C-alpha cells in the first residue's frame, strides 16, 4: 500500500488564496471545499490510505522556546474561520484527520510518516507539502516529499541536490540559514551554500568545533530544536486506520452547508466504486 499524508493547513491556505486570485470575494467555506476536492482527486487517482494533519491552533510548544516563533497573528479572519470547519468536514468525509494543539501539523506529518514507514506492508509514504521542514522525514525512496504545485517528488537524493545536505541534516541546515515562515533568523553570515559546506565537513551542529560558530553556537542549537520535527505523536496504531471506507452520516449535511453539490456527487461516485470493489 501507499500512504498519503496531506498538510491540511497548507492546502487550506492554498485554496483560500487561489480563490482570492480569481474572485473579489470568497465563499464562507470555499477553501474547505477546495481541500476536500483535493482529497477526492487523490482518491480518484487510486489513493486508498490518506491522513490529513491540521493546525487546530497556530501556536505550539516552540513559542515557549523562541518568542518570535510564528503565531496566528495576521491571518485573515475569513481564512481563520475555516480552520475548525475543515477538520469537521474531513471527519464527515471519513478521512483520518489530526488536529494539532501543542504540536504542529508538520509534527503530525512527521509522526505519521514514522509510524507508517514501520509497517512492512507499506511500499511508500508520500508527504504532500512543499514545506522544507518536512524534507528531514525523507528516507531513500520509501518516504518521499511531494510538491503538488511543481509536481516534484523528492526522494533522499533529490533533497540532497536541492539543499546540499542529506535529509537528516535538514534541521541543522535550517538552524543555520533560518526560516522566515516560522520566525527564526538563522545565524548571521550563514547562507545556503555556507551552511551546506559546513554541515558537509563537520556533520550535525553538535559536532562542530567550538570556534566555528563562536558565540552563536548555543543559538544555533536552539534553532535546530525549533526546526526538528517530533515523530512521537500517537496518531494511530495501525495503518489500516488510514484506509478510506466512505463518508459518515453527516457528510450530506456538510456538503449542503458548504453549498457544494458537485463535491457531494463526486464523493458519492467514489463510495459507489468503493462498494463495487468490495
Account of the protein in words:
This protein has 278 residues and is of the alpha/beta class. It has 2 domains: 2-161 and 230-277, Rossmann fold, CATH 3.40.50.1010; 166-227, 5' to 3' exonuclease, C-terminal subdomain (DNA polymerase, domain 1, Orthogonal Bundle). The protein has helices at residues 8-22, 30-44, 62-65, 77-80, 83-93, 105-117, 156-163, 170-177, 192-202, 210-213, 217-227, 251-258, 261-277; strands at residues 2-7, 49-55, 96-100, 124-128, 143-147, 152-154. It has a 6-stranded mixed β-sheet, sandwiched between helices. Strand 5 and strand 6 (152-154) form a beta hairpin. The longest helix is centred in the last third of the chain and has 17 residues, at 261-277. The radius of gyration is 20 Å and the shape is globular. It starts with a strand and ends with a helix. The mean pLDDT is 94.
In brief:
The chain has helices spanning 8-22, 30-44, 62-65, 77-80, 83-93, 105-117, 156-163, 170-177, 192-202, 210-213, 217-227, 251-258, 261-277, and strands at residues 2-7, 49-55, 96-100, 124-128, 143-147, 152-154. By secondary structure, it is α/β, with parallel strands linked by helices.
SSE blueprint:
Elements: E1 2-7, H1 8-22, H2 30-44, E2 49-55, H3 62-65, H4 77-80, H5 83-93, E3 96-100, H6 105-117, E4 124-128, E5 143-147, E6 152-154, H7 156-163, H8 170-177, H9 192-202, H10 210-213, H11 217-227, H12 251-258, H13 261-277
Parallel strand pairs: 1-2, 1-4, 2-3, 4-5
Antiparallel strand pairs: 5-6
Helix pairs in contact: 1-2, 2-5, 2-13, 8-9, 8-11
